[in-house]
Amino acid sequence: MERHRWLKVAIFACLVAFSVGREFRLNHKHSGDAISFNHTLAEILVQYASAAYISDLTELFTWTCSRCDDLTQGFEVIELVVDVQHCLQSYVGVAKSLNAIVIAFRGTQENSIQNWIEDLYWKQLDQMYPGMPDAMVHHGFYFAYHNTTIRPAIVSAVERTRKFYGNLDIMVTGHSMGGAMAAFCGLDLAVSHNYQNVQVITFGQPRIGNAVFASYYSNIVPNTFRVTNGNDIVPHLPPFYSYFPRKTYRHFPREVWLYDVGFGSFIYQVEKVCDGSGEDPSCSRSVSGKSVSDHLVYYGVELSSPAWRSCRFVMDPPLAASYGMTDPNGNRVFSRDPEIPLIRLKEPSSLGGKSW
């Protein structure tokens, strides 16, 4: 029995050594430089993606929320956008520890995420991406970034921040639908605004376009990683049909698949950096992909709203009056000048605030 137990330990040790003892690289087509997946950066950005779900905007804007600590301490929010009309939320700020501007998008904020997932099964490629012949994308995801309050507020915030801080890197992240918006944002910043140092890391992102779009995207924003987790259902949607390669949805590269190895009480999570096809059959496509619970937690970080309250949010009235702007549709943008320190409120969580 003792010998059998030590044999299990030895096998598990070999699995761990094999899974973490390699460095994975992706060749950059434009410069020849190598792009490596950065595990530490992914663990940081997933916390920013999680914070995007906070509905207490006083705590989020002042970066004092329960998810606004640990690896993201010291972050300064420059712009917080709440598109009430379309139930969208994102923010832009400066992470001095990363020497970067971070842009984060909230994922699906609905009373029933299951309904949203079921709806994705039937989504069609119904939008031509401008300036990219034959590139088709998901209209809803495209619209959410390009045709709402979100895009102009983000672009303005990035321009103001770079004007003050200089040529910082730009890191874009999001979870679920927020990952889809993050991808469109990264592409937009590179194409329409000619930013060269754009990096995108998403979590549990659905497919957003066809093979032509995936090819364009991977050439324009090569520093992109899509992290998927176990049997997470959303990266399998909308469906990919290999027998209709030109007409079906297709992921762009590069996927990083998180999955568990081991047996019994010996379980270890492995990161597998997949091939450059975007649809590596040995990664998340190797499993059925029917889990909602795997969609809601990445790297041990919760990626959902603390309270499923649809699109409502809370904001302290004085802070809203000082930094907020409201358009005719009721959408809110909370902005601050990077040159002027934010007014720090005492115990913002005790202020209660006004609910919208």
Helical content stands at 25-40%
Task: Decide which structural class fits the backbone.
Answer: alpha+beta
Mean pLDDT: 85
Largest sheet report: 10 strands, mixed
**Beta-strand residue fraction:** 15-25%
Q: In total, how many domains does the architecture comprise?
A: 1
Instruction: Give the CATH level 1 class.
Output: Alpha Beta
Name the overall outline.
globular
Name of the CATH superfamily: Alpha/Beta hydrolase fold, catalytic domain
Rg over CA atoms, rounded to whole Å, is: 21 Å
CATH topology, what is it called? Rossmann fold
Encode the helix/strand succession as letters: HEEHHEEEHEEHHEHEHEEEEEEHEEE
Oligomer: single chain
Number of strands: 18
The low-pLDDT segments are: 1-33, 345-351
What's the total helix number?
9
Q: Give the end-to-end Cα distance, rounded to a whole number of Å.
A: 63 Å
Widest β-sheet, arrangement of strands: 12-11-10-9-8-5-4-3-17-16
CATH architecture label: 3-Layer(aba) Sandwich
Signal peptide: 1-21
GO molecular function, one term: hydrolase activity
Keywords: Hydrolase, Signal
Domain Fungal lipase-type: 102-240
